[in-house]
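Sequence only, no structure available. Ideas?
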Amino acid sequence: MPDPFTPSRRDVLRSLGLVSLGSPWLARTAALAAPADLLRKPIPATGEAIPAIGMGTWLTFDIGEDTAALDTRVEVLETFFRMGGGMVDSSPMYGSAEAVMGRCLERVPDAGSLFSATKVWTMTRWLGISQMEASEELWGETQFDLMQIHNLLDWEAHLETLLEWKAAGRVRYIGITTSHGRRHEKLLAIMERHPIDFVQLTYNITDREAEARLLPLAAERGQAVIANRPFQRGALLNRLAAKPLPGWAAEINCANWPQFLLKFIVSHPAITCAIPATSRPDHMAENMGALSGRLPDASEREKMLEFVREL
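Reply:
I predicted one. Tokens follow.
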């Protein structure tokens, strides 16, 4: 078992100077930086605050050995951290995404704010342990901030392991995920009965099923919530792209549709972090703009809902 106090491979590489000194994208956008009023939300279990906009890696980081695509993903990650990002979420389910993430992190000099989150996605306790150890090696991590059970797969076996790993300091937080409404009843039962720190589920301005029972239960149980599919895999942005933002969006400091959609999500009191995914640095900069300015209040959220319904 790795010692959680042993420096990670990435830390060693940084100390030796074997990481990039910056990318052309960052040279062109030196003014991009974390806002002074960076929006953070607390993890209920500890009170630790993390940036409310994170980053997903499904599809976008599954690029295999494509070196040109890797360079672009490094720029995406550099932009993310430069503008105040923290949580990066991945999974063994996402093809080469974890291996690509590890290679990117070796080249990013300013990833000190990383909140590393991945998942276990296999059958049986022992295969799960092997898979999580492989993830540690791929990322270059000796202690993940968050390890989640992906889509409830063999959750009872993996939860036993995760509770042991957390007690031993091998992971900081544990969680469980789903992106399917048909699993909500089972997820509710797990949330009610087990000491889960994080829940990950689908929530956006049009997919709001979680508001009925899951989000209230998470608030009651003191469980952090990660919102996946914030743009409906891009469908929401495609639908809205040709439509102008309402003039009043400036009142909640939204300059584009990604910021509008993300601010709606993270303004829900029970949501801790949203994890949009992108393969483009300019789109990442748009997403991260949602970390600045004020959030909509309850009446403004209703106004946002009504506006999108009518489009």
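Confidence is low (pLDDT under 50) at residues 13-23, 25-30.
Hope that gets you unstuck.
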